[in-house]
Amino acid sequence: MAHPPQKSAPRTETPGLPARRAALRLLDAVLRRGLALEQALDSAAKGLAPSDRGLAHAIAAETLRRLPDLDALIDSATQRPLPHDAKARFALRIALAQALGLGTPHHAAIATVLPLVDGGPRKLVHGVFGTLMRRDVQFPETPVLPDSIIERWQRHWGEAAVDAAAHAIAAPPPLDLTLQRPIDIEGATSLTPNHLRLAPGTSVPELPGFEAGDWWVQDIAASIPARLIGRGPGAALDLCAAPGGKSLQLAAAGWDVTSVDISESRLARLRENSTRTGLPLHVVAADLLQWQPQAQAHAVLLDAPCSATGIFRRHPDVLHRVRPSLIKEMAELQSRLLARAAEWVRPGGMLVFSTCSLEPEEGEAQLEGFLARHNDYAVDPIRAEELPAGIVSRGEGTLRLLPGALADAGGCDGFFIARLKRTG
Ligand SMILES: C[S@@+](CC[C@H](N)C(=O)[O-])C[C@H]1O[C@@H](n2cnc3c(N)ncnc32)[C@H](O)[C@@H]1O
């Protein structure tokens, strides 16, 4: 008698596997395609529950923070080095980042990555992981930075800055809030007026004053450019404004703010922030290389797009994907944006230029080029009393925030900031 065709039993997926698959896609996007982690997240984690999306992001971020350490461990346990783009290396990086960095039990860390190499070198991955766990390996206390970063930052800023950068990625950064109104939050410290600092990992929506819009999240370094503009009234242009921390500061300081940005999705967050805080902004979605304001403004802030290497603590992908070609491309865009912004400042008014970059091409060299082309502008030196205690401007009155700044208080992002006055 003929048997009816057998239906194969549905394959049950290893629990936790979707998050690891998404982590693998994220790492591939950053390391092979040069995308930013946040930019790759929606597509890599498509269809995942929010908790799995969060886990995929945490695994990928931990892997990127510790990549040279992970690779050194893997290489110490293989006879022939695995190619850098081999799937087995990616699977091992993900398993080890979880076991050593995120506290995932060893059996779960390996069980959830083996299916990533199905039909491939499962035995090798299992063997290398097992060898390392038997050796009871740990991450070094201070992470090792990628060679290209060590070379570049040592050349520009010296050894102390490189050491400070390595220390800075060992632990998650604190949470900084910029205050619209005074508020007490338990456990918070204040490093400058209208600022509170909370422990890393603090849950933002659960903090008092969130719904009421009493504050917004903003690293203390990122709050300095708008602080330098001082109080209104008057017209202020915030160029490259989204998601809007600096626009909110300017509106809170009494300026009539026009916020311009090219990104609709980032402007949606700016609008939400404006609604939540009740701080009014005129919002314009436009490419600043095309757009023109109707009138010149007293204050113009250009927080220009950049390589973002100054925010490596929160976005460790920049340590691996920012190459000299990207820095050059960003520096060229900044020059074009600065040239346009310069036209929109009233004589006697001010232009603040900032980038969250640790590359001099996007800071010191940018300013030097601008001043050589604009003899109607001069640096308006930043004064000590305008800055949080412990931060000092440089001789010529600009600000260069390197890794190591405010280290005893939990550190801050890397930035370049210059305030210019239009003299003619
Ligand atoms: C460093 S972020 C700005 C952060 C913002 N100032 C804040 O404090 O929240 C740079 C911004 O430049 C915007 N941008 C890049 N190219 C632009 C262009 N050609 N015109 C307008 N905005 C642009 C990006 O969309 C991004 O939001």
From TrEMBL:
GO terms for biological process: regulation of DNA-templated transcription; RNA methylation. Its EC number is 2.1.1.176. The active site is at C356. The lineage of its organism: Bacteria, Pseudomonadati, Pseudomonadota, Alphaproteobacteria, Sphingomonadales. InterPro entries: MeTrfase_RsmB-F_NOP2_cat, MeTrfase_RsmB-F_NOP2_dom, NusB-like_sf, NusB_RsmB_TIM44, RCMT, SAM-dependent_MTases_sf. Keywords: Methyltransferase, RNA-binding, S-adenosyl-L-methionine, Transferase. This is 16S rRNA (Cytosine967-C5)-methyltransferase. Belongs to the class I-like SAM-binding methyltransferase superfamily. RsmB/NOP family. GO terms for molecular function: RNA binding; RNA methyltransferase activity. The keyword NADP does not apply. Residues 136-423 form the SAM-dependent MTase RsmB/NOP-type domain. Transmembrane segments: none annotated. It comes from the Bacteria. It holds the Pfam family NusB. S-adenosyl-L-methionine binds at C240, A241, A242, P243, G244, G245, K246, D261, D287, D303. PANTHER family: NOL1_NOP2_SUN FAMILY PROTEIN _ ANTITERMINATION NUSB DOMAIN-CONTAINING PROTEIN, NOP2 YEAST -RELATED NOL1/NOP2/FMU SUN DOMAIN-CONTAINING.
